[in-house]
Design goal:
Layout (H helix, E strand, L loop, with lengths): L3 H33 L4 E6 L7 H15 L3 E6 L4 H13 L4 E5 L4 H10 L4 E5 L9 E4 L4 H14 L4 E6 L4 H17 L4 E6 L6 H13 L4 E4 L4 H8 L2 E6 L10 E7 L2 H13 L18 E3 L11 H16 L17
Parallel strand pairs: 1-2, 1-3, 3-4, 4-5, 6-7, 6-8, 8-9, 9-10
Antiparallel strand pairs: 10-11
Length: 342
């Protein structure tokens, strides 16, 4: 009987050894899997407006897509005041984020100062200025090409020949889109008249709406909605609107004829590629917003596909083809557009 106990003990020991081996194997497998899994890049973004605002929403969308693919750990701050911007930038750099994205239009000096203090952090900022060595890259929504095409559509759809444009601020990033839109409209109707207003805000839909109402009262029947609120005015008065940056036709199916779309994915993907490779440097990423890089496009005509004259559609398609094959170039004009309406 005594012999049974040593035998049971031996069996138990062998069982424990097997369990230990299995556990060790599992740990090795887990460790190998973790070693094989690529490390996620820590990315932070700083926004001075809500992420729902059309311009910022494009950046947020691209970074969210990268997060959902498992490439990055993404955190962001929205509604950051200009006075607090520098502090938030420093905080994200101190937290070890490898890439910090944001808009520095109103805080250029502060943003560039922070970049100098954290040379190991990559900064990709919407900016009117040039890149700053070694780590401050700039980008912009270079969507003047589809803006030109929407201008053609606007002029072709206008019955009065009077077109209104409502923008946030007269900075190069806005000016060039409006200038391209106006030139596109002039290609279709050289006699078209334009009323231009800037509301002095990046996000004030009621103010943009009132500015649009004033234009409608002066005869404008097509409105360029660089800001939210303009399409609401057009809808209420039975006029047409042209969208900017995002496609709002689903929300305004009888109002928004066409939109110039911005896709931030090519810009973000290129920046992440450089950060991961350790080759990020000060550069101008604006080119990745061009149509040839799929950074911008003309939105599908959708509910207006059958309402736009066939000859106008043909002109727009021909001009788009010329832009894509390089035989036509949309001029970049950064100066503030002026009203021409009498």
């Amino acid at each position: 009987m005594k012999a049974l106990f040593p035998l049971s003990g031996a069996i138990a020991r062998r069982g424990l050894l097997k369990l230990a081996a299995v556990a060790a194997g599992a740990l090795l497998f887990t460790g190998a899997a973790q070693a094989q899994a690529p490390a996620k890049t820590k990315v932070a973004a700083i926004y001075t407006v809500p992420v729902e605002q059309q311009w910022v929403s494009r950046i947020h969308k691209a970074l969210t897509a990268a997060r959902d693919r498992g490439e990055i750990d993404y955190t962001f701050s929205e509604n950051v005041t200009n006075a607090d911007y520098e502090r938030v930038m420093r905080q994200y750099a101190e937290q070890g984020n490898k890439l910090v994205v944001g808009e520095a239009f109103a805080v250029e000096a502060a943003a560039r100062k922070v970049a100098k203090d954290y040379p190991q952090t990559a900064f990709l900022m919407g900016s009117s200025g040039k890149p700053q060595q070694p780590n401050f890259s700039v980008f912009d929504n270079y969507i003047q090409e589809p803006a030109y095409l929407t201008g053609m559509i606007a002029a072709g759809m206008s019955k009065t020949g009077k077109i209104g444009l409502v923008g946030g601020y007269p900075i190069p990033e806005v000016n060039r889109l409006m200038q391209a839109f106006i030139e596109g409209a002039k290609e279709v109707n050289p006699q078209a008249e334009f009323t231009v207003t800037f509301i002095g805000s990046w996000f004030d839909p009621p103010k943009a709406k009132e500015a649009a109402f004033a234009m409608i009262d002066k005869g404008a029947d097509v409105l360029y909605a660089e800001r939210f609120g303009v399409s609401d005015a057009a809808k209420e008065r039975g006029k047409l609107a042209i969208g900017n940056v995002i496609d709002t036709q689903p929300q305004y199916p009888e109002t928004v004829v066409a939109s110039a779309l911005w896709s931030m994915e090519p810009t973000i993907d290129e920046a992440l590629k450089q950060v991961k490779a350790g080759t990020f440097k000060a550069d101008d990423y604006g080119q990745y917003s061009l149509m040839k890089h799929q950074g911008s496009s003309l939105a599908p005509l959708g509910t207006f596909a059958a309402k736009i004259p066939a000859d106008l559609v043909a002109k727009v398609e021909a001009r788009q083809k010329a832009i894509l094959d390089g035989s036509f170039s949309v001029k970049v004009v950064d100066k503030e557009p002026k009203s021409s309406a009498r």
